[in-house]
Amino acid sequence: MEEIDYRHPRKLKRDQIESLRGGHWIQQARNVLIIGPTGIGKSFLACALGYDACEHGYRTFYRYAPKLFRDLENARIDGSLSKFLSKLMKVQLLIIDDLGIASATADQYRQLLEVLDDRGSNGSTLITSQVPVGKWHQMIPDATVADAILDRLVHTAHRIELSGESMRKVKNGRH
Predict the structure, then answer these.
(1) DSSP three-state, residue 34
(2) In the predicted model, is pLDDT for residue 37 greater than 70?
(3) I need a labelling partner for 154 at 20 to 30 A (CA). Which of 31, 58, 118, 122 fits?
(4) Sheet with strand 124-129: strands edge to edge
């Protein structure tokens, strides 16, 4: 958390991040959505919040969204889906990084809905995405599943919406 750069113009509010320090939002089963363009620091923020959660004793599980979808599919195929879903249900913070970075099938989003449904009010989910929340209906192939996913995530979420140039681009001197 100490390494977060608040100087880069990306609309990151220090007081908003500080309010998440300590993980009380996890205790309240609230979610966090970090939305913004490539290179703006979404994954770094997610990992910083995840690390902070671990430091405060919260069990945390991180997955890059395309890998989570593959893991769910592989678990379904090899018969270990119930075990994998149980593992995801038990973590207090589930971090899904880069949702929407690669297209996913309606079945994969249904599996994600099952994960979110199983977690219910047992834990928090942190999602990063380049896709604005208002466009998630277009990203998720099944409108009913999209409604259900948004209902489970958005209404209890702290939203961090970033904008600006890629931090990688600026740090490498290529504006």
Answers:
(1) strand
(2) yes
(3) 58
(4) 60-64, 93-97, 124-129, 31-35, 157-161
